[in-house]
Amino acid sequence: MTSTAKVISSVIDGQETGPGGGEYLSRNPSRLDDVVATVTLGGPSTLADAARSAKRAQREWAAVPPPVRGRVIASFGRLVEANKQTLAELVTREIGKPLAEALGEVQEIIDTADFFLGEGRRLYGQTVPSEMPDKQLFTFRVPVGVAAVITAGNFPVAVPSWYLVPALLCGNAVVWKPAEYASASARALAELAWRAGVPAGVLNLVYADGENTFAGLEQALTEGTVHKIGFTGSSAVGVKVGELAGRHLQSACLELGGKNPMVIAPDADLDLAVEGALFSGFGTAGQRCTSLGSIIAHVDVHDEFVRRLTTAVENAVVGDPRQDVLYGPMLDQKFADNYERLLGWVADHHTVLGSTATGRITDAAPRTGFVGDHSAGLFYHPVLLDGVRPDDQVFLEETFGPLVGVTTYRTFDEALELADRPGYGLSASVYTTDPATAFRFRAGIGAGMVSVNNSTSGAEAHLPFGGNGRSGNGSRQSGIWVLDQFTRWQSLNWDFSGKLQKAQMDVATIEPDLDFRL
């Protein structure tokens, strides 16, 4: 049954804009005949127009006292909380994320707002002593100006809040370009922000494809109307965004892909490790940047661990995301197409485990225990791939789908080398009952986030989130650390001596007797 789709378009300075870049149908990936929204896409000038609007509005927003901006963030959190169920159901309908996960995603927005409402009273600077008499030194956090935020759709409302909440709190204006396939969820979140008191021109919503987004961003940077870029997406596109920012002497906040390892030590609690691997490898159909990519199991426990994990994957419930399932469909047709291409990396030396087939779930290739109508959506078999080698493409590259590879190690140093080999550095996990192994793993791994006896997925609003290497440029979101992305440090020196005092030149000195000996 086809549902009536909402027609939405970009919103600049509170006004919906006209067409310029075609039309996009945001479909429910678990029921492809259900069009959630008909999206009017902007052209190459849409983002640049939004940035000009944002620049005009930003100065007045920055003049609002930070504690008052904090109250706006508080109101935003309360509105999200009041609409939690509705927003989560929209997320489930638009991207196919199981409702339990969608509710957790919306809760993350609430947690983020709860954390940052107090930062409006804690945008601390410092009073610093001067080397001169009758002189005081100060430091202040000031807004960067206009932030262009470009987000993926696998976390269509939580991850955007990691950008929007601190950026707005710090006095910036925002141009937000969400993923097209999550357009309706993005519009709902923006509506809640506007109703909470964020001025229309301070938060602008742009719908555009990748090519027009890049062209508009380049134009805005040239015009000097964008002062910070926040990007969540693939590593390949992140490289291009980072290069563009660098040409304009900016450092983008990049949250990119991951090939996240999980090391299973010989003393690990295997049942606990299986639980963590199942959730982080196959939750959201493996379509998280923090999804488990490779299991690196000690040779002494490999066979038993794989046996237990195989059973867990085979018994996992897949299907209709409105029901109690481990995962639902692929997010969008383009991800399904890409995942089918990556299944070509499965080689003769691999052992395929975990389901009754590989690829799309169909009448000819059914999944035991599937819930719902597999023919209605983009549903795929889980794949547990044993016998993966360190030079395999499936070991080195992000797969972004329900596929987890397994390899083995003998020494701890070998495990660390394998874990870092792909060159990503987002999240990593180790299962062990030995504290020494846990701390050595933390010290030796290159990931920005490390878990012990927990999955590679999962973030809390008051911890830094981000990666290194191919996973990002060292920038961090969440907690107090993200403030460095959306503020600039400004120093003030105030001389009230009534005369010119020259630093490093007019400094009084007290001479020691350095020749003295006991």
Automatic annotation (TrEMBL):
EC class: oxidoreductase
Protein's UniProt keywords contain Oxidoreductase: yes
Pfam family, one: Aldedh
PROSITE patterns in the record: ALDEHYDE_DEHYDR_GLU
Keyword entries, A-Z: Oxidoreductase
GO MF, any single term: aldehyde dehydrogenase (NAD+) activity
EC number, UniProt record: 1.2.1.3
Active site (record annotation): E255
Residue numbers spanned by region Disordered: 1-26
Residue ranges of every copy of the Aldehyde dehydrogenase domain listed in the record: 26-491
Keyword Lipid metabolism: no
Family membership: Belongs to the aldehyde dehydrogenase family.
Annotated PANTHER family: SUCCINATE-SEMIALDEHYDE DEHYDROGENASE, MITOCHONDRIAL (PTHR43353)
Record protein name field: NAD-dependent aldehyde dehydrogenase
